[in-house]
Design goal:
The structure is a homodimer.
Chain A: H1 22-33, H2 38-53, E1 60-64, H3 70-77, E2 87-89, E3 96-101, E4 106-112, H4 121-127, H5 138-148, E5 153-159, E6 173-175, E7 182-184, H6 192-195, E8 211-212
Parallel strand pairs in A: 1-2
Antiparallel strand pairs in A: 1-3, 3-4, 4-5, 6-7
Chain lengths: ~210, ~210
């Protein structure tokens, strides 16, 4: 099903986030994310910066180092999504993303640089949680994000480790003898949910299971 | 930043996937996911079915039991995304999603039901990987998905465990003395990336780190 990652494109317009004016991107963020979250707005500049620093050619996947906000900037602005697996989350808690060539591992990592935040005190307060959410001035924060743009970010070339390059074969499917649902046979004689520890709700008799077939 | 999950809506039109005709939804899937993947198409019917079985009122988050395809159906059709955290992935490998009231934990789980696949052999072949991708008849598969609709799914009421209800406070932020980036102070004296084991690329001297400030 996977046919291609994202292709490199150049943008010479520093005022834009990819093809979008700041306010147009903010509207997309509100629609997809539910609010004009500071993290997704900054993430837009980070994605834009990464695109412009990619080496020529190639197909790129993305790694986000946080699950909070940043993945939505990637999903809004690139063909990479969680569901098509071109976007991966490796949660180190850092506000950073890496675009990498899925064949060679060569890529660029863009991160929110604490050393560049002093000229933008409201961004610094937000990023380092120096003020409470209640004390945060949302309008000032958004204005500072608009003015700062990519100037609060830094870029480094990186080489992604081979474990991220080779698409893992999921292998054969089995039907779990316990829940009767399909799962990856390599996970064992019964599925991980029935084995316990993963289920998002109590298993067995504690689950209210009214049979309601559609 | 989080203001609301998704609100319950009713749909009496069984031919549609939420507000969309099958082909219109397929176009959305192609745009967001990159291809009209069978899993995202079936996921559309699963999301639609879940919506119609939700209890009245409430704000709902979603858990997907696989990272493959299904999360994109949720992200296309609901306000829930990975980045706003209203969509969570608990990877049991099963093709199932759970919509649950984030205050009470009451919810519905929709799953692709192996016991209902016999009338749709191409869906069964795809789901259980009984044929190779090369031997898969993509047109026939999509037609069977269109015809089967929600009839290959089952629904159960579930009670999500309390660990998914209480929003975890991330706590204070620290600047890592090693990489100088912000991270969750609760993770220790240095960030998880510098502690090792999580980084998507080799750490230390093996990383090609040309300093290229924007």
């Amino acid at each position: 099903m996977k046919t291609a990652g994202l292709n490199r494109e150049e943008s010479s317009d520093m005022q834009k986030i990819r093809a979008y004016a700041f306010d147009d991107y903010a509207a997309l963020v509100r629609s997809f994310h539910g609010s004009v979250a500071p993290g997704v707005m900054i993430g837009g500049f980070m994605v834009d910066l990464a695109y412009r620093r990619l080496p020529s050619g190639g197909l790129f996947d993305v790694i986000c180092e946080t699950a909070k906000c940043l993945p939505d900037a990637v999903q809004i602005l690139t063909p990479c999504s969680i569901g098509n697996r071109w976007l991966k989350i490796v949660d180190t808690g850092r506000y950073a993303l890496t675009f990498y060539d899925k064949r060679t591992g060569a890529g660029v990592r863009v991160y929110l640089d604490c050393a560049k935040l002093d000229p933008w005190p409201e961004i610094k307060n937000w990023h380092l949680k120096l003020t409470s959410k209640e004390a945060q001035d949302d309008d000032l924060l958004l204005n500072q994000i608009r003015e700062a743009g990519e100037n609060i970010c830094s870029v480094k070339e990186v080489q992604v480790s081979p474990t991220f390059l080779n698409k893992k074969k999921a292998g054969p499917i089995a039907v779990c003898p316990s829940c009767k649902e399909a799962y990856h046979a390599a996970d064992g004689a019964i599925c991980p949910a029935c084995r316990g520890g993963l289920l998002p709700y109590p298993s067995g008799s504690r689950v209210r299971r009214k049979s309601r077939t559609p």
